[in-house]
Amino acid sequence: MKILVTGGTGFLGRRMVERLAPNHDLRLLVRKTSDRSRFPDNVTFAEGDVTDAASLEAAAEGCDAILHAAALVKILAPSADFDRINVRGLDHVLAAGEKVGVERIVYVSSFMALGPTENGPERMLDESAPARDRKWINDYERTKTLSDRAARRAIENGAPLCVVYPGVIYGPGELTEGNIVVRHVLDLVNGQLPALLGKPQRIWNYSFVEDVASGIVRVLEDAPLGERYVLAGDNVTQGRFYEIVGEQTGVKMPSLRMPDFLAKTSGFFMKSWAQMFGGTPKLTPDLVDVYTHDWALSSRKAQEEIGYTYRSFEEGLQATLEWLSEEGIWPARRS
């Protein structure tokens, strides 16, 4: 297939491109400032942006499929930017696909589009979760949810679309704001967090980036049109998460937990400082809110229908720490 990829220069995007390049003809939609290095030789580039409908349509010309993974994942950004990229970006992809007649579109959504899971059946959700109104934690959750609803409507109207929902993605690769887990682990092992957030019984789903990329390839190549799949990993309590990080790094984890009200206050000042003087805050009030919820997922449908597999969090973290050591970002694992 000749595939147009959006978001191919990002944390997850580069892993997808690595897996698709040996068997497909790839064209990456990239902005002027995008890093075009370290891609396979057979990858080509089309300058444009998902917010520019004309450039997206031109890039899609002659393609059989579109893999849409571009998204705004930022701790600090104007609300309008989230709408422009995360919501209207998908609208432009769907319009371009219809205009040039692509046979297949795969949209990479997010676990946050399904919502917190503490009130779900068995405290977890999958792709069968109905679209539900709720109070948004932040603009990312809001816009990913709205774009998911648009995707569901498009499928109902016959668009050749599949949707995937990764969990909290982590692993080797670019330390972008989307690689929140690895950034958090580095803060822990470097002694930059005096206290932990959230309650130890809270559950998050940790999805290793290589597993998610492989699952997306399976959906692109084999899944029936109109299907939606959760591509998740291990559901791990926050308490167990910190135990595993401590066991594998040999670093003593903080024993104190910051009360939510104090964490929100600290996050408010960190966010305000960053807005005034620049930089990325380590904590914001909405990030504290994310830690007050469960985000537990089931990938049973993907496992049964497309052969999706995932590794345990212990295995994924070990691979990540080995990569950090190889890259000189963090010392080798201690004995």
Any overview of this molecule?
The protein is of the alpha/beta class and 335 residues long. It has a domain at 2-175 and 207-236 and 296-311: NAD(P)-binding Rossmann-like Domain (Rossmann fold), CATH 3.40.50. It has 11 helices and 10 strands. The protein has helices at residues 11-20, 53-60, 79-100, 139-156, 180-189, 209-222, 238-249, 260-277, 285-290, 300-306, 313-326, and strands spanning 2-6, 25-30, 44-47, 65-68, 104-108, 161-166, 168-170, 203-208, 228-231, 234-237. Helix 3 runs parallel beside helix 4 (139-156) and helix 7 (238-249) packs across helix 11. The model has no long low-confidence stretch (mean pLDDT 93).
SSE layout and pairing:
Layout: E1 2-6, H1 11-20, E2 25-30, E3 44-47, H2 53-60, E4 65-68, H3 79-100, E5 104-108, H4 139-156, E6 161-166, E7 168-170, H5 180-189, E8 203-208, H6 209-222, E9 228-231, E10 234-237, H7 238-249, H8 260-277, H9 285-290, H10 300-306, H11 313-326
Parallel strand pairs: 1-2, 1-4, 2-3, 4-5, 5-6, 6-9, 7-8
Antiparallel strand pairs: 8-10
Strand content: 5-15%
The main sheet orders its strands as: 3-2-1-4-5-6-9
Q: What are the secondary-structure elements, in order, as H or E?
A: EHEEHEHEHEEHEHEEHHHHH
CATH class of the domain at 2-175 and 207-236 and 296-311: Alpha Beta
Question: Any idea what the radius of gyration is?
Answer: 20 Å
CATH architecture label name of the domain at 2-175 and 207-236 and 296-311 = 3-Layer(aba) Sandwich
Helix content: 40-55%
State the major sheet: 7 strands, parallel
Identify the overall geometry: globular
Structural class: alpha/beta
Question: What is the H level of CATH, i.e. the homologous superfamily of the domain at 2-175 and 207-236 and 296-311?
Answer: NAD(P)-binding Rossmann-like Domain
Task: Determine the N-to-C terminus distance.
Answer: 47 Å
Number of helices: 11
Give the uncertain stretches in residue-range form. none
Could you report the average pLDDT, rounded to the nearest whole number? 93
The total strand number stands at: 10
Q: Could you say what the CATH topology of the domain at 2-175 and 207-236 and 296-311 is called? A: Rossmann fold
